[in-house]
From TrEMBL:
Species of the source: Streptomonospora salina
Protein name: Cobyric acid synthase
Origin superkingdom: Bacteria
Family from the record: Belongs to the CobB/CobQ family. CobQ subfamily.
Active site as annotated: 330, 419
Entries under PROSITE patterns matching the protein: GATASE_COBBQ, GATASE_TYPE_1
InterPro entries: Class_I_gatase-like, CobQ/CobB/MinD/ParA_Nub-bd_dom, CobQ_GATase1, CobQ_N, CobQ_synth, GATase_3, P-loop_NTPase
CDD domains (UniProt xref): CobQ_N (cd05389), GATase1_CobQ (cd01750)
Amino acid sequence: MAGTTSDAGKSVLVTGICRWLARQGFKVAPFKAQNMSLNSVVTADGAEIGRAQAAQAAAAGVEPTAAMNPVLLKPGSDRRSQVVVRGRPVGEADALGYRDFKDRLRTVAAESLAELRAEYDAVICEGAGSPAEINLRPGDIANMGLARAADLPVLVVGDIDRGGVFAAMHGTLALLEPADQALIAGFVVNKFRGAPELLEPGLDMLRRVTGRPVHGVLPWLEGRAIDVEDSLALTAERTPARAPVQGRTLRVAVVHTPRISNFTDIDALAVEPGVDLRFVSSPQEMGDADLVVLPGTRATVADLAWMRERGLDTAVAERAEQGRPVLGICGGYQMLARRIHDEVESRAGAVPGLGLLPTAVAFAAEKTLGRPVGSAYGHPVEGYEIHHGHSVLDDGAAGDAEPFLDGWRRGAVWGTTWHGALENDAFRRAFLADAARWAGRDFAPAPDTDFAAERKARMDALGDLVERHMDTGALLRLLEEGPPGGMPVIPPAGVPDV
């Protein structure tokens, strides 16, 4: 599944196809050879992979593994990324240095795909960005490079809501070299709003000028987002408005730092009736929020500096001094410390934290990956950890602080290293009730909100979308027979064969 652009709907469509195939009785797995994302998760065997692939595996009803996302790039700045191979970090690289990894990574991707194909009835592969990024084609391992190496049929999905979808689809095909074009089996139009008959003339022309079928027109579906890859997708679509509980509302502000990571932690808050959730990047936007969340980040020190430039540090500190709730998760928890020493991510050395918890943070070269279990507010809690920073009590004294999910709490300030904790329903309700009490809000969480059921319903909705609006017979033929032969070639605009 390739896309005309990033965020065209590749991840969502792969999730839907996995769900549909699993419901037909197939054993199916997702695969993304190379993923650039700050939204990751830890598998049962301790490997770090993109959270989108974990969600796709859940849609398929299988346990996620490192083979489903063998290469994960985690940007730490505009120029450098941590390279994670088969779930373990192997180093840092900029765009030029990354070329030195390519031969090894190509082999790792091919071996991982072969592993999945040997175990599963079907493997649905997701591309990265667009296959028409022709400047990257010689070293490509995730788009047409993968498709050609493994002889995979390719569908191209385009987001019609952005406009220009027909030009994007035709242009994507035309920019590919002939051997790559031969693998393009058809198109899928995504996020269509309106009367289907108005679209038909455009579809007819697309079929004529490309010689390829359109395998589906997917209508706009509210609330379809599931564990997306990057913060470009942090829109109102992720946080649909929920009816308040008897007129009571809890206002939650999530600080949207430049390197925000694992922002899916707040999805469980968004499903709560009465929770008004928004992302903020200034004290003015934070405004009258009852609860402020400092989420995870791939660059704790740099994002803390960004907060200071905007006065967000002062705004958060003033809230805490007033006894108004603040929750820090992973990197956000590290920011709450008195001091931070980082010679790993930022290499900035000693940096003062926000000083809202009696802790000190030191960054270690070895990354901590785990799936801890524990309890809080008398309820069992499961989560996952992904961090280099380690927090300890500063000067060894807790004072008036108390332990909280491998972190600390002092008054209305909570900090934890655990991602995913808010997905535990009973714990989430107890935490929100406590936060509301500190904020002086007349709010009580609904007693029956089930986050796992909400995610399952979204996956089922995507499976329904595929079943109702795609040519599923054509999908099965592509899975059984591979790329269709005899596809016409559009003369590329002077693009040489690689």
